Amino acid sequence: MDFFEAIAMTPRPDIPARAADLGRLAPVNYTSGTTSYPKGCRHTQGHMLYTAAANHLRAESFSETTLNFFPQFWIAGQNHGLVYQIFSGTTLVLLSRWDPLAFMMAVSTQRVGATTMLVDNLVEVMNHPRFAEFDLSCLKLIRCVSFVKKLGLEIRQLWTAHYPDAVLCESAWGMTETHTANTVTIGFQDDDFDLRSRPTFVGVPSPGTDFKICSFETGELLPPGSEGEICCRSPAVFDGYLNAPEATREALRDGWLHSGDIGQIDENGFIHYLGRKKDLIKVNGMSVAPAEIEAVLVTHPAVFAVAVVPRRDEQCGERPVAFVELKKNAEAVSPASMADWCRQRIATYKVPEIRVIPEFPLGTTGKIRKDVLRDWL
């Protein structure tokens, strides 16, 4: 018997209707723990509903069938592999794990229109020996997550050379505390505006979400163009950390989440993400954001991925150190030549020491373990 016929024939229990309680605790989503121990974020039914609605508005025109392979314990996997589809009534193709061949087979046979994936996954698909065998033209929206490899012009152009109608964009800024996806980058791809802007570009606020940049020291609101702490207010900001009242009071103040992220709102209202305050490097008293160095170095033709951490230095306090993973079959390049390459593009005091490594240590959600890199130093 067909599965859906069997479901239709199954007697339904007489369950009394119950009013929705949007303030009721739903999931407890844990942070990735890349800079400290993971913390449980208390989220409600209402948080999930808002996040789904905001994402539906920005992506509803692209597809009635989506695909997810992110693990469900990760909040992005929960959203892209459960919450969004329940809200919108769209079809979900669910892969139990990442496999490039299974991905291409699923997209082509199920006519998947939208998905979210790591930039590394996208590169792996294009480099697969059977890539040309599959028709992936149905894939109109690919939201890329940049944990290791960053989305750049070269990668976008490689994909659109095969599928010019596809929209390939960054998945934007978000945190486990905000239920993720709090900015919008869809719609800024004309003439590659998003990628040709400052490399820290993460778009504009999602509907119903407010942003401000504040001083880390005083909490004072800073004018446009200033660098400071990204503060976010939205219907999806968490209710607090599980069993951690002190950390909750530090993060939630007067209805705003103080993210611990360094950012900027420019004169046009675009938001830029510069990294975590915990990662900020002080060189002779001047602040250096690792994200800025990473965004520059990843455009080097031989670089596959990069992560920057500080090293203690007796003369200037700290120095940035860039761990670099090279592309496969890349031409030999010395750390000194890469440093010279950086010197032509960023201020001298920001130029990092270069350390080439075979691969990065990754956490369970695919993020680079910068705490491990600091231990290596």
From TrEMBL:
Keywords: Ligase, Metal-binding
Domain AMP-dependent synthetase/ligase positions: 18-242
GO molecular function: CoA-ligase activity; metal ion binding
CDD domains, per the entry: AFD_class_I
Domain AMP-binding enzyme C-terminal: 292-367
PANTHER family: AMP-BINDING DOMAIN-CONTAINING PROTEIN-RELATED (PTHR24096:SF149), LONG-CHAIN-FATTY-ACID--COA LIGASE (PTHR24096)
Family note: Belongs to the ATP-dependent AMP-binding enzyme family.
Protein name listed in UniProt: Acyl-CoA synthetase (AMP-forming)/AMP-acid ligase II
Organism taxonomic ancestry: Bacteria, Pseudomonadati, Pseudomonadota, Alphaproteobacteria, Hyphomicrobiales
